[in-house]
Amino acid sequence: MSKKPLDPNASKALKQMKYEIANELGILNDDTIDKGNISSRQNGLVAGYVGGYMTKKLVEIGEKLLINQSHKK
């Protein structure tokens, strides 16, 4: 299974979503952090935390789309 989005335009939207969720969680902008000064474990914890919330939100969006589609039929 490829990690590439089905729609190339989705990459920009997913990146924006990542920053919005990180902001909601109180995590600073990932691009401004000097990753040379944090451990890979710390970096992985932050990335995993944000990724988990992204997955949760994407599932919620998908569920709403499915519900809306089933009501239209």
Percentage of residues assigned to helices: 55-70%
Distance between the termini: 31 Å
Task: Return the average pLDDT rounded to an integer.
Answer: 79
Count of discrete domains = 1
Low-confidence stretches: none
Structural classification: mainly alpha
Order of helices and strands: HH
- Count of helices? 2
Q: What can you tell me about this protein's structure?
A:
There is one protein chain. It is built from two helices and no strands. With 73 residues, it is mainly α. It has one domain (10-72). Helix 1 (10-24) packs across helix 2. The longest helix is centred in the C-terminal third of the chain and has 33 residues, at 40-72. 1% of the residues are buried. The mean pLDDT is 79.
Summarize the topology.
Blueprint: H1 10-24, H2 40-72
Helix pairs in contact: 1-2
